[in-house]
Design goal:
With 448 residues, the chain is mostly helical. The protein has helices at 2-26, 36-40, 69-75, 91-100, 106-118, 124-133, 140-150, 156-163, 170-197, 202-211, 218-224, 233-243, 252-262, 267-278, 286-301, 307-319, 337-348, 356-375, 386-395, 402-425, 438-445; strands spanning 55-57, 61-64, 67-68, 78-80, 86-89. It is globular, with a radius of gyration of 22 Å. The structure holds alpha-fluoro-carboxymethyldethia coenzyme a complex. Residues 251, 282-284, 286, 318, 323-330, 377-380, 384-386 line the site of alpha-fluoro-carboxymethyldethia coenzyme a complex. Keywords: Mitochondrion, Transferase, Transit peptide. This is Citrate synthase.
Length: 448
């Protein structure tokens, strides 16, 4: 989008100057003390990375440049439904906010959607992968990651680097590739669905629909529903895509894209790497796991299961050394506001609110939290967003649980790619933290 790029061109030098001043004047100022518990405990709470798009508060949840989700939902431009009614906030409006820190106008968002649509078509080499080149039995996340990596074939960033473009200019190419990738992600996801399950309209049709006009999400909603207009589905997807857009920098997918991008790998390679992390069951794959978990529980206990039956089922899971998917979080210590936003959306939908699995997820909350509290291990016994998303998507006909992480992968690109542009714009260096052996840690505490 030319307008978005032009705005970044104004903003990046300002922030880069602030960063230089801070580095020069306060470079040796300590941010915090690092403890042994942090070094051996997955770096929890260790402040070690610059991330601009959003910040996560343990109790309040995510804020995008200071705005919480309710404020975003209220202030960001919204979709227009087919019947003319106002829909939910648009993910491309969220992209604008994440990238610039500013609320876009409706006109700016429409312009951005148009620019994305113009680049929606996939190159033949990517289409080949998604039209039988990759085995249908390959996990959809692996297919997504391979298809995204394949776009590196035409990376403007990689070409610019090879030509020796000045480092200060690299962000412009990172931006170009990022917009290209965002434009193509819906068609890739539609292609993965068709290749894996033989369902939906596929990549070519999804890109064609995008070029007919409309917002970023509508073609994907239609491609996943096989062309059927399902009332509420496009809005559900839009909300999902906007909510999952960014969750600050330390989560596995964001951190991975940041790390790989710091080696000046192009945005396609950086984001493909991020997707491989998102495919882990403790991260994005939890969305798939939750639905399988809830469905299995529903089948095992029957529709009339009592609270005691459900409680017993949860204890069996915990006592067999497994986790309750969709509960807990590395940072959050309260119910995830993204969970609450999807629950609110579902409860206001006349059909979704009566869906048995959606209802079971709502009911589970009151039972699982006290069980996890009694279990006593989990720092956060409350539901995270993955608890809710699958139940919503299956209701609208997307029943293949492995696809939930793919949809998550479409969304998370908003934040990861935006930061990639800023990282290059701010001239951040290659990441190279120091590792230490157990011996060194032990020697360090001798006599302490
Ligand atoms: N069920 C059972 N036990 C849990 C648990 C859960 N939902 N969540 C945490 N625990 C356990 C941990 O396994 C750990 O046990 P251990 O001491 O025997 O190793 C202990 O509680 C302490 O972990 P905690 O500090 O609370 O959590 P971490 O920061 O280590 O891990 C995740 C956070 C999210 C990985 C963890 O809560 C989990 O495995 N949850 C289930 C999977 C899930 O829903 N993931 C999605 C998270 C997120 F929303 C996303 O990234 O998409």
């Amino acid at each position: 989008s030319q307008a978005l790029r032009a705005r970044l061109e104004e903003l990046i030098p300002q922030k880069a100057a602030r960063l230089q001043t801070l580095k020069k004047e306060y470079g040796s100022h300590p941010v915090q003390t690092t403890t042994i518990a942090q070094v051996v405990g997955g770096m929890r709470g260790m402040k070690a990375m610059l991330w601009e798009g959003s910040e996560l508060d343990a109790n309040e949840g995510i804020r995008f440049h200071g705005l919480n989700l309710e404020e975003c939902a209220e202030k960001l431009p919204k979709a227009r439904n087919v019947d003319g009614s106002e829909g939910v906030m648009l993910p491309e409006a969220m992209l604008w906010l994440i990238m610039t820190g500013e609320i876009p106008t409706t006109e700016q968002v429409e312009g951005l959607a148009k620019d994305l649509a113009a680049q929606a078509a996939l190159p033949e080499y990517t289409l080949k992968l998604l039209e039988g080149g990759l085995p249908s039995s390959l996990h959809p996340m692996t297919q997504l990651s391979i298809a995204v990596a394949s776009l590196n074939h035409d990376s403007k960033f990689a070409q610019a680097y090879e030509k020796g473009v000045n480092k200060k200019e690299l962000w412009k190419y990172a931006y170009e590739d990022s917009i290209t990738l965002l434009a193509k992600l819906p068609a890739i996801a539609a292609g993965v669905y068709k290749n894996a399950y033989g369902k939906g309209l596929g990549a070519r049709k999804c890109a064609e629909l995008a070029q007919e006009g409309g917002d970023w999400t509508q073609p994907l909603a239609l491609a996943l529903s096989g062309g059927e207009e399902r009332k509420g589905w496009a809005d559900c997807l839009r909300l999902y895509l906007a909510l999952h857009g960014d969750h600050e920098g330390g989560n596995v997918s964001a951190h991975t894209s940041h790390l790989v991008g710091s080696a000046l790998a192009d945005p396609f390679l950086s984001y493909s790497a991020a997707l491989n992390g998102l495919a882990g069951p403790l991260h994005g794959l939890a969305a798939q796991e939750v639905l399988t978990f809830v469905k299995t529980m529903h089948d095992a206990l029957g529709a009339d299961a009592s609270d005691t039956d459900i409680e017993g089922y949860l204890w069996d899971v915990l006592n067999s050394g497994r986790v309750i998917p969709g509960y807990g979080h590395g940072v959050l210590r309260k119910t995830d506001p993204r969970f609450t936003a999807l629950a609110k959306f579902g409860s206001s939908s006349p059909t979704l609110s009566s869906d048995p699995l959606f209802r079971l997820v709502q009911r589970l909350q009151a039972i699982a939290t006290p069980v996890l509290q009694k279990h006593g291990k989990t720092a956060n016994p409350f539901p995270n967003v993955d608890s809710q998303s699958g139940a919503c998507m299956q209701h609208f006909g997307l029943e293949e649980a492995p696809m939930y992480t793919v949809v998550f992968g479409v969304s998370r690109a908003l934040g990861c790619l935006s930061q990639g542009v800023w990282s290059r714009g701010l001239g951040l260096p290659i990441e190279r933290p120091k590792s230490v052996s157990l011996r060194v840690l032990e020697e360090g505490v001798k006599g302490a």
